[in-house]
Amino acid sequence: MATTTAATRVATRPTYGLPFVISAASAGTIVEWYDFYLYATLTPFLSPLFFPGDNPTAVQLAGFATYAAGFLVRPFGAVVFGALGDIIGRKYTFLVTITAMGLATVLMGLIPTYAQIGLAAPALLVLLRIIQGLALGGEYGGAAIYVAEHAPDNKRGLYTSWIQTTATLGFFFALAIILYFRNTMTAADFAAQGWRYPFWISAVLVVIALFIRIRLRETPLFARLKEQKKVVTGAGNWASESFSGRKVGTILLVLIGLTAGQGVVWYQGQFQANFFMGTYLKFSFQQAYPIMLWAVALGTPFFLVFGWLSDRIGRKVIILGGCLIAAITYIPIYHAMVDAANVTRDATGLITKSDPNVPVMVFLIWIQVIFVTMVYGPIAAFLVEYFRAKVRYTSLSIPYHFGNGWFGGLLPLTYTGLVGATIPDEKRYVPWLGLFDLRNLNTTGDINGNIYLGLAYVITVAVMSVVVGTLFLHEPKNVKIWSEVGGEERGMVTEATPAD
Fold first, then answer.
1. Cα separation, 217 vs 91, whole angstroms
2. Residue 249 is inside which H or E element, if any?
3. Which of 265, 303, 340, 408 could form a disulfide with 377 if both were Cys (CB 3.0 to 4.6 A apart)?
4. For residue 487, what are the CA distances in angstroms to 7, 199, 230, 482, 484?
């Protein structure tokens, strides 16, 4: 009886193409982003439940600090899971990350509040946010690389831009599901139990995503690396390949000159825009959420537009161009948002509510989402092409998660602290880390503080990336990633089996 070799088994399996690869990778990544952004979206609501206090600014800062915790650990997740992805493989690593993310999210929906168990409540919340951050640190790199290492060289920007839509889609679904429960429940019922339901829904989503992903095989490029015995073989070899010589300098250069600016533009254009409406303009969630949903829905197709365009004119010019345009226009955009909000003030001058011009608000936030699509649409292709295959998972993930997790993830906390430090009322004043008293920057004496001051952080980081990236980063668009394994094979994959 003839023996069936592994090569014969692979050759006889039916082929599947990039649509399946993209769909399978994207489905799981959307779920991960949905999970991660549920708490982020609910931060202003959950802060009083887990961090009660008399000072509203301090309460919000505590909530945003927990929000930031999930971002701060993302680079550490990038190192841990990046090593696994480069040593063991792309597929198995992002199966682990989605499982960890799903479990942490479901448990987050089970935590008792501060009123029920005291300080244990915020401690558990922070712990689960850290687990989420570690999981996300490994997820994005795996999904981006998985698609990129299947894609043809001349369409890598377009195909990886589908992965780039997942963060915004995860945010969209988080907003939509929260809005549904808040609209169908009384305020008391939502505060008591309803806020937990969006977290529990994650259990179903994760099971579906795992079912899809488990059918995937390893990427053909990584499989070729293994055949040629070019993969890193252990912790020592991985560390040497990832961080020796000029490699750390390259990672830092990509961080400062690209992902830091991209990170702040992403979070300003979506999360901070949403927080700005609710926190400073006093929009109700019924006002703010639909505006964000429309802006995000209308802007999302442009991820694909700019991914496609980057295959033709280059990645760097689009990403840094988006950072520069955003930096120049943020101040007039946010002044226009305040004008369109038609705010109402009480006798002391405190903003109490808004009656917004909704079409104008949608347009102004849509512009910011377009900036997001410019800086984010081509970035996966840029990062994949900038680093070698054998340490690509690690080298790509570290600057991405430092840029988005630290520079971008700290944005709401930094913004809130800067504005809080300009509020003239001593009872509302919260010094930013005890270092700065910025009340002299509130030149109008507005009791609300200088609500634009946080933009200084965003603009500074974006301009920094424009300058450094323009001067020191090369354009990677024409890199042939298959040349590392001695061939031009692209995109031919076989139907997956769980045994691979």
1. 7
2. helix 247-254
3. 303
4. 18, 45, 14, 6, 8
CA distances from 66 to 43, 58, 77, 125, 136 (A): 9, 13, 17, 8, 16
Contact present, 128 and 35 (Cβ < 8 Å):
no
Structural tokens at position 339: 């004008």
Give the separation between CA 356 and CA 119, rounded to whole angstroms: 39
Question: How many CB atoms sit inside 10 A of residue 441's CB?
Answer: 15
Task: Give CA torsion, residues 97, 98, 104, 108, to 10 deg.
Answer: 140
Query: Who's near 96: CB < 8 A, 6+ residues apart?
Result: 81, 84, 138
Token couple for 342? 């038609």
Q: Identify which of 142-151, 157-166, 345-354, 473-482 has the greatest average pLDDT.
A: 157-166
CA 21 to chain centre: 21
User: What pLDDT is recorded for position 236?
Assistant: 66
Instruction: Tell me how far apart the alpha carbons of residues 231 and 86 are, in angstroms, rounded to a whole number.
Output: 7
Higher-scoring residue by pLDDT: 403, 426: 403
User: Which tokens sit at 29?
Assistant: 């990544």
For residue 292, the tally of other CB atoms under 10 A from its CB is 27
Give the model's pLDDT for residue 488. 56
Write the DSSP assignment of 18-80 as a string of letters.
HHHHHHHHHHHHHHHHHHHHHHHHHHHHHHHHHS--S-HHHHHHHHHHHHHHHHHTHHHHHHH
Region of residue 408 (phi > 0: left; psi between -120 and 50: alpha; otherwise: beta): alpha
- pTM for this prediction: 0.84
C-alpha distances in Å from residue 341, one per residue of 179, 292, 364, 367, 449: 20, 14, 11, 16, 17
- The DSSP call for residue 270 is I
CA distances from 164 to 158, 388, 424, 455 (A): 10, 21, 42, 24
What is the spatial distance between Cα 158 and Cα 108, in angstroms, rounded to a whole number?
35
Residue 444 to residues 330, 417, 429, 447, Cα–Cα distance (Å) = 20, 19, 16, 9
Count CB neighbours of 14 within 10 A: 6
For 25-39, what is the mean pLDDT? 80
390 and 481 in contact (C-beta within 8 Å)? no
What does the pLDDT average to over 466-489? Answer: 83
Helix axes 56-72, 411-420, angle to 10 degrees: 160
CA 403 vs CA 103, 140, 259, 261, 362: distances in Å: 26, 13, 5, 7, 27
Q: State CA 386 to chain mean position distance.
A: 20
Delineate the domains of the chain, giving CATH numbers in brackets. 14-494 (1.20.1250.20)
